Inverse folding.
């Protein structure tokens, strides 16, 4: 698929012109890109007089709260908080715009409603291997830094981003590129430059993203790096956060955001894995340096996927390992198989 924004902008514009009620839907455990691209699209649709709700499978992380205005909050529906409201909206809408995910299963609790919905569905995403046949129209550009970047160039074709959208898009791109340290290409910097020129306050965005954490986060990170991190000769590093750690440090959703990136600071490490225990599973995050695929590892071993150098998945208990205590040796075995 070539990145022809003029063509895709036109198609999107014409699909939207026929819609009255719209749902935007983004992935479970929404990050800055999922939230930012959803808000930007919703803001644009509202400027056209559409009735829009932004649906998320579970709550938005605290760290991205600054990007959500009180007025916007009222237009957001979270499935785990109000499942029937979400299901009703999906039934009532005539257009669904799926953002920052490549298949319905990434919508977790919303998956069934999505499968059953007769509404036209449009995909706007940058993940590899999209489930194309599920969509009336797909805008899938895996080379893009973020879904926010794709949405930015689409909105440029369609009259430009609203001020709310501009801030949301800068936020989504900044979190997905880890503040320009990965997936950054000329288009990404061009977008940032144009958004700055529109008056977006990037300093405040970066401060909100990187300098508003609770002390607990740093204490927990210190513990992990000092006592828990394992590294191998083959260039892997991994950290496992168990439920008792989450309790001990009183970690909230979002407090561990970015932990998986830290071991890549070590010269010899080319693959970093973070496991975080939840009920009946470990959530897995993987990051890698160029030349080593995080995506293949996530797909091959962790029922997941994502991008070449940033991917995720899960380890199920007891399907993959009998108890949480087996996670350590399991990862060691998989790393040996994958990197040798
Ligand atoms: Mn993304």
């Amino acid at each position: 698929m070539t990145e022809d924004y003029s063509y895709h902008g036109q198609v999107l514009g014409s699909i939207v012109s026929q819609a009255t009620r719209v749902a935007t839907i983004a992935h479970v455990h929404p990050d800055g890109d999922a939230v930012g691209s959803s808000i930007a699209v919703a803001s644009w649709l509202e400027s056209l007089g559409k009735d829009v709700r932004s649906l998320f499978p579970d709550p938005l992380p605290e760290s991205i709260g600054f990007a959500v205005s009180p007025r916007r909050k009222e237009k957001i529906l979270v499935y785990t908080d109000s499942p029937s409201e979400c299901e009703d909206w999906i039934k009532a809408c005539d257009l669904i715009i799926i953002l920052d995910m490549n298949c319905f299963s990434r919508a977790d609790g919303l998956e069934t409603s999505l499968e059953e919905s007769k509404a036209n569905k449009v995909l706007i995403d940058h993940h590899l291997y999209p489930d194309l046949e599920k969509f009336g129209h797909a805008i899938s550009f895996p080379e893009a830094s973020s879904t926010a970047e794709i949405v930015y160039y689409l909105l440029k074709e369609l009259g430009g981003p609203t001020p709310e959208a501009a801030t949301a898009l800068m936020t989504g791109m900044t979190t997905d590129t880890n503040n320009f340290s990965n997936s950054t290409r000329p288009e990404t910097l061009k977008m940032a430059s144009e958004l700055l020129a529109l008056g977006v306050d990037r300093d405040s965005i970066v401060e909100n993203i990187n300098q508003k954490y609770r002390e607990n986060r740093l204490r927990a990170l210190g513990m992990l790096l000092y006592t828990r991190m394992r590294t191998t000769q083959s260039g892997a590093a991994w950290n496992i956060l168990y439920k008792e750690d989450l309790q001990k440090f009183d970690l909230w959703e979002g407090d561990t955001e970015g932990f998986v990136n830290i071991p890549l600071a070590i010269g010899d490490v080319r693959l970093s894995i973070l496991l975080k225990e939840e009920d009946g599973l470990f959530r897995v995050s993987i990051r890698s340096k160029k030349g080593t695929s995080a995506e293949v590892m996530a797909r091959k071993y962790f029922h997941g996927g994502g991008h070449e150098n940033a991917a995720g998945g899960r380890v199920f208990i007891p399907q993959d390992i009998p108890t949480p205590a087996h996670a350590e040796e399991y990862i060691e075995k998989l790393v040996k198989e994958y990197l040798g």
Notes: The longest helix spans residues 32-47. Residues 33, 100, 126, 146-147, 176 surround manganese (II) ion (CB under 6 Å). The chain has two domains: 5-210, 215-339. The chain has a mean pLDDT of 96.
